[in-house]
Structures are given as structure tokens and as C-alpha cells.
């Protein structure tokens, strides 16, 4: 009451609603101009409008005699736009920029709250506005100047010879036949920016006539701003209760939806998204993102969202794959739709995409050819499926795009179990539809989903191998020093000085000595020609050993060769020497084999144990060493593959490279058995495991 007394009513004014210019009255907002050049000083030369778009274009004359007008600049602009020639197409016929064009844009999309008011004799007359347009200068004349400049440059560079003109007339024409447009593709085309621009350009301009402020026609039209009758029948809208009147002044916020700027159909702001129900929010997010961890989904939904409600809703539109949520196929491909690439119906697309999702529940990698072979879909559709949830890796396949979400799996075991049951049902359907083989249904190792996949680069593998070698070398060195100390304490008579050792030499004419350090230097642990420098049980001089010692060396060497060839039936001399070096490194100090073994002794022992040398005809330009060209094989091992092995050795003694089908045919003829591909592979693996 006190506030009302402080603010008394001074005057009451009657308000009338004028309808004569309803849906015809626009408010134009002109740009600010200098005070010395008001709009009363300019003349409207022409005006045109596109009613549907509410777009207006005005052409207004400029007062070139005004002291604020720069004449030299106006002449320069006219010269750049029209050039030196003047004709009917010239923009500025007076060779001076004497006019300017203004184009309109909507200042507000919802003008229902705005009205033009006229006050006269204690009465306020309101006329609703149909639009509010802001006029801004149009600089299309600059585009015209640039176009003419490019034309002049092209004319100067192109040349004007008749031969060039003749060549320009000959053009290659490419004929293309468009495919039938699907409904989904048509909707995307209609909503595109290019289509909307084309529709707007198709609307014709409606030319208008401009009347000045003091023109008699303007005076006549201005009278329509007043209400033509003061009867109650025409102003029933103004006879409202106070609450209804306030509702008219401040309508509900529902109308604010029309104020939002137009956006593409697949774009939704976060503010708009959070006004929707939770289920719709999750569906829209999953449909756009397609693959998302649960933590990211919660962050997009905002604080205060109940995780239980989110889990309940997300299971309706997505499936769990490697701890992450992947949108369901029927959400992306609704019923009665088809593929934009092949026209395949949505049901077939859903089955194919479900197969891809199911494959990713089994492994992190999927091969595109395998998916195409099973689903029988076109490559474009298969590529779309894979791009939804995986990333292509060169020479590997498609890898699931997100890492395994172990945190979600540990926190929600009940959800994981429920999703596994759903995948079992999907797998059963896929088995019936695609007739899946056992190799497709074989479950992968559980380590793939129990922890993050371990990806080790080549450099890391080399470093790990080096570290392991250093560790093993240290252990071998410690054992050697320990054995060395024991030998010193037990047999002092076996000590010898390193300078007194004389290396065994063999005549060059017979065979060059075997270099036991060339293949594996780190494994000899200080051996000199296979002999420890500090200890030895014999005293060889130039390779001559006592008679009993020679027999023991031969027995030890024969035992090594026999056991080696029973494990690996075919060996090159190079590989055999490498294995012999490893065997020497594992022997205790003072062993009889440390007396020195030459290449000739080793080869003779190989032949004495029942092995044969296979003269494989290697090509002359081969880069292999001489030791790698000497191939020895165990002729009879006493197993079931002796006959097959002998046939193979005969084949490779004639040619060093043989096709598999030739081997299969030769084995079948010689052995009298019809061997299939798997059996041939087994024979090759057993016989040549060390070489091939």
C-alpha cells in the first residue's frame, strides 16, 4: 500500500488494436549515418522483396554533392566495377558511385511481442509488426569488380590465336547415370545447406514502389495505423482479466523454442539435450557417438544424474563390448529403411552389424574380408560397420577403437553377466542365419577381456632379449667361476698356463678348421678354440691326443651328433656348428670335447652316424655362406616318416625350390598313399623343421 501511494496514477490512456495493416507492417532498421547526411537527403531508387523469406533489397541514391562525399574514391570504385566502357549493364552509368544497395536480415525470428504505436488525442493505437528487418550495405559490386579483373587476367594469359580457340572448343564429356535416390538420402539432401540456398534463390523478387515521407500516398497509408472503429467488437482482445493480460505480455517459455537458431538435423546443443527426458538424451548421445565408456556418458549427462537410471536406460539402446557401450544396430538402422550404398533393407544391415559387434566381443581384431565373406554385404556397408567401432591398422586389420574398460566390469558384474546372456542369444541367431563354422565360434582366451591387451613394439622386444641375455650370462659366469674354484681345489695337477697352449692346426689342403667363436662369441665364456685357458684334462700338442683320449672324444662327439639329428633330421653345417658351440658352453671345464674339434672331424662323424650329404642345387648367385650350402640329413630314423623323408630328400637333391603340389604328387606316387594338404604339411614340418 505504501508503494502504491508513492506512485500515484497520473493519467489513464485508452489502448486500441488496429488491424488494417495486420501481417503487412514491417519495421526497417537503417545503419547509422553521419548527421550531415540523414535519410531525408537520399532518394530510394528501387525496392524489391521476397515475401516468403522476408528479404528486402533497397537501392538508394547517394548525395554526391555533399561535402562529406569523396569524389575521387567514388570514381575509382566505378572504374573498378564497370571499367572504361559504359553500357546498359553498367552498375554506375555516371562513372561515379552515386548509389548504394542495402540488403535485409531478420533482427528477430519471433516478432509477436512487438507492435507499432501511434498516440493521438489521448488514445494509443497498436498495430502488430509482421517483421523487423535490419538493413546492411551490400558489397556485391566488389564481387563484380573482382570477376572483371579475373576475366582481364585470363584474356591476357590465354592468348588469342585461332588454334587455341579451336582447341578450347573440343571438350571431353563424361556421362554419368545416377542411382535411384532412397528416402533417407532424399531427406538428407532436402535438409542440406546447398538445397536451402537453392530454394531461396528460386523465389522471385517482387518489385515495390517507394513513396516519400510527405507523399500523399504515405499520408493515406499512415491512417491505417489508427483503429478504424472504437466498438467493443473490434477490441475484444484488450478486454482481459489482469492475469490473462499478463499471460499475453509474458507468454510461457514454450514459445522460446522458436527463437533458437536453425541447426542441421544431426546437431543438438547440450542445452537443448538436457531439456529432454533421460532416455532420449542417452539415445541421442549413443546414436551420435556410437561407442562410449560409461564414465564419459555420465560426464555428458551432467552432475546429479542417477547412475542406476542411466544403466537402466543405456541397456535399451546399446550393448556392452569389451566393457564399453556400443549403440544397437536397430537404433542406427530403423525399420523400413535401407542402405544408402546398396539398398539392402535394414534387417539385413542389423544382422551384419551385429556379427561385427559379436566378433569384437571375442577379440580386439577383426578382418574385413572375413566379415564380408560371412555377411555377403557390399564393401561399403562393411566399412561403415567397422568405422562405427574400430580403427584400421595397416597389415593387421581393424582394432576396437577403445581400450578394455576394466573398471566398469569390476564395478558392475551383474550388468556384465546380463550382457553376456544377451550375446549368447545373438550368437545363436547368427549361427542359424550365417551357418557359422567352428572356427568362427571358437571362444578366444579370457586374457583378452581380463586385462588390457599387451602390445610390444619391436624395439621393446630387442631390449627385453638383451636384458635376458645379460641376466643369463651373469648366471653362467657365476657357475663357471664356482666350478673353476672347485677344480682348482680338487685337482691342482690339472693347472696349466695360458701361454703354453698351442692351437691345433690342420692342413689347409684337407679342410679349414672350425671357428667356434664366429657364431656365438658370448657363449664360449673365455674359451680358446673350445678349451678353457685355465684348465684342461689333457695336453694336446698340434691336435695329437693320447689314444684313450681320442676314443673318448669320438664317443662324446658321436653322442652329440646322434642326439642332434634325431631331434632335427636335416641340418646345414652352419646350424650344426652353432648347436655344437651351445653344447660346449653347457659342458663343465676340462671336458674331453674341449681338446679341439675341426670341421673335418665333425663332418666325418656326421657321415659315420648314418647321415648323408644332400647336394642341393642352390643357384650360383645365392648370398649364403659355404657352411650354409652343405646340407646333411638323417637317412633312417626308425620312425613312420622315413620313406616320406627319403622321397623329399631325393626331390630337393634335384631342385632347391619345389611347389607344394609337386611334392604332394611325388609322395603319393612313391609311397602309394593319397596324402591331403594337411598331411603334406605335417611331413614337411617333421622333416625340415630346422630349415623350412
TrEMBL record:
Residues 444-690 form the DNA-directed RNA polymerase III subunit RPC5 C-terminal domain. It holds the Pfam family RPC5. One of its GO terms (biological process) is tRNA transcription by RNA polymerase III. Residues 146-169 are annotated as: Disordered. InterPro entries: RNA_pol_III_Rpc5, RPC5_C. One of its GO terms (cellular component) is RNA polymerase III complex. Residues 146-155 have a biased composition (Basic and acidic residues). PANTHER family: DNA-DIRECTED RNA POLYMERASE III SUBUNIT RPC5, DNA-DIRECTED RNA POLYMERASES III 80 KDA POLYPEPTIDE RNA POLYMERASE III SUBUNIT 5. This is RPC5 polymerase. The lineage of its organism: Eukaryota, Metazoa, Chordata, Craniata, Vertebrata. The gene is Polr3e.
Amino acid at each position: 500500500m505504501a508503494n502504491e501511494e508513492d506512485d500515484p496514477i497520473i493519467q489513464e490512456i485508452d489502448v486500441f488494436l488496429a488491424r488494417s495493416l495486420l501481417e503487412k507492417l514491417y519495421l526497417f532498421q537503417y545503419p547509422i549515418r553521419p548527421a550531415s547526411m540523414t535519410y531525408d537527403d537520399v532518394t530510394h531508387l528501387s525496392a524489391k522483396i521476397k515475401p516468403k523469406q522476408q528479404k528486402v533489397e533497397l537501392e538508394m541514391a547517394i548525395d554526391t554533392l555533399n561535402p562529406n562525399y569523396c569524389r575521387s574514391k567514388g570514381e575509382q570504385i566505378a572504374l573498378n566495377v564497370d571499367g572504361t566502357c559504359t553500357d546498359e549493364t553498367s552498375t554506375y552509368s555516371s562513372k561515379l558511385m552515386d548509389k548504394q544497395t542495402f540488403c535485409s536480415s531478420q533482427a528477430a525470428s519471433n516478432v509477436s511481442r512487438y507492435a507499432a504505436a501511434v498516440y493521438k488525442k489521448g488514445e494509443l493505437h497498436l498495430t502488430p509488426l509482421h517483421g523487423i528487418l535490419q538493413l546492411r550495405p551490400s558489397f556485391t559490386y566488389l564481387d563484380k569488380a573482382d570477376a572483371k579483373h579475373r576475366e582481364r587476367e585470363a584474356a591476357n594469359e590465354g592468348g588469342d590465336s585461332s588454334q587455341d580457340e579451336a582447341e578450347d572448343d573440343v571438350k571431353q564429356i563424361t556421362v554419368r547415370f545416377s542411382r535411384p535416390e532412397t528416402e533417407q538420402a532424399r531427406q538428407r539432401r532436402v535438409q542440406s545447406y546447398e538445397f536451402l540456398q537453392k530454394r531461396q534463390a528460386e523465389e522471385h523478387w517482387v518489385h515495390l514502389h517507394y513513396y516519400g515521407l510527405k507523399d500523399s500516398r504515405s499520408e493515406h497509408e499512415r491512417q491505417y495505423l489508427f483503429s478504424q472503429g472504437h466498438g467493443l467488437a473490434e477490441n475484444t482482445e484488450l478486454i482481459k482479466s489482469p492475469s490473462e493480460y499478463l499471460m499475453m505480455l509474458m507468454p510461457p517459455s514454450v514459445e522460446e523454442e522458436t527463437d533458437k537458431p536453425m541447426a542441421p538435423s544431426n546437431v543438438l546443443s547440450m542445452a537443448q539435450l538436457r531439456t529432454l527426458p533421460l532416455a532420449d538424451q542417452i539415445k541421442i548421445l549413443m546414436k551420435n557417438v556410437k561407442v562410449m565408456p560409461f564414465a564419459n556418458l555420465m560426464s555428458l549427462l551432467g552432475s546429479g544424474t542417477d547412475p542406476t537410471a542411466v544403466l537402466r536406460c543405456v541397456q535399451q539402446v546399446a550393448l556392452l563390448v569389451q566393457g564399453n557401450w556400443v549403440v544397437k544396430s536397430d537404433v542406427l538402422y530403423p525399420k523400413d529403411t535401407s542402405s544408402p550404398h546398396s539398398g539392402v533393407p535394414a534387417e539385413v544391415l542389423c544382422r551384419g552389424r551385429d556379427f561385427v559387434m559379436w566378433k569384437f566381443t571375442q577379440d580386439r581384431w577383426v578382418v574385413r574380408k572375413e566379415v564380408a565373406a560371412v555377411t555377403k554385404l557390399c564393401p561399403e556397408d562393411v566399412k561403415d560397420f567397422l568405422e562405427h567401432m574400430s580403427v584400421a591398422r595397416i597389415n593387421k586389420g581393424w582394432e576396437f577403437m577403445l581400450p578394455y574398460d576394466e573398471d566398469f566390469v569390476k564395478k558392475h558384474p551383474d550388468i556384465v553377466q546380463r550382457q553376456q546372456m544377451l550375446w549368447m542369444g545373438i550368437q545363436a541367431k547368427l549361427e542359424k542365419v550365417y551357418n557359422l563354422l567352428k572356427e568362427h565360434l571358437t571362444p578366444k582366451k579370457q586374457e583378452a577381456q581380463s586385462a588390457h591387451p599387451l602390445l610390444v613394439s619391436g624395439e621393446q622386444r630387442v631390449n627385453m632379449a638383451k636384458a635376458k641375455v645379460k641376466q643369463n650370462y651373469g648366471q653362467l659366469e657365476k657357475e663357471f667361476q664356482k666350478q673353476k674354484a672347485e677344480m682348482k681345489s680338487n685337482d691342482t695337477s690339472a693347472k696349466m698356463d695360458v701361454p703354453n697352449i698351442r692351437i691345433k692346426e690342420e692342413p689347409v689342403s684337407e679342410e679349414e678348421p672350425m671357428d667356434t667363436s664366429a657364431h656365438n662369441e658370448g657363449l664360449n665364456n673365455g674359451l680358446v678354440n673350445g678349451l678353457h685357458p685355465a684348465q684342461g684334462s689333457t695336453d694336446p700338442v698340434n691336435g695329437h691326443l693320447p689314444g684313450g683320449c681320442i676314443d673318448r672324444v669320438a664317443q662324446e662327439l658321436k653322442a652329440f651328433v646322434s642326439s642332434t639329428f634325431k631331434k632335427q633330421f636335416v641340418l646345414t653345417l652352419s646350424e650344426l656348428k652353432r648347436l655344437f658351440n651351445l653344447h660346449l658352453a653347457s659342458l663343465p671345464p676340462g671336458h674331453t670335447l674341449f681338446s679341439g674339434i675341426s670341421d673335418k672331424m665333425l663332418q666325418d662323424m656326421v657321415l659315420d652316424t648314418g647321415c648323408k650329404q644332400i647336394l642341393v642345387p642352390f643357384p650360383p648367385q645365392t648370398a649364403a655362406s659355404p657352411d650354409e650350402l652343405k646340407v646333411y640329413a638323417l637317412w633312417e630314423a626308425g620312425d613312420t616318416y622315413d620313406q616320406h623323408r627319403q622321397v623329399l630328400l631325393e626331390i630337393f637333391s634335384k631342385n632347391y625350390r619345389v611347389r607344394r603340389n609337386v611334392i604332394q604328387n611325388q609322395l603319393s606316387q612313391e609311397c602309394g598313399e593319397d596324402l591331403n594338404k594337411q598331411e603334406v604339411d605335417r611331413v614337411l614340418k617333421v622333416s625340415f623343421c630346422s630349415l623350412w
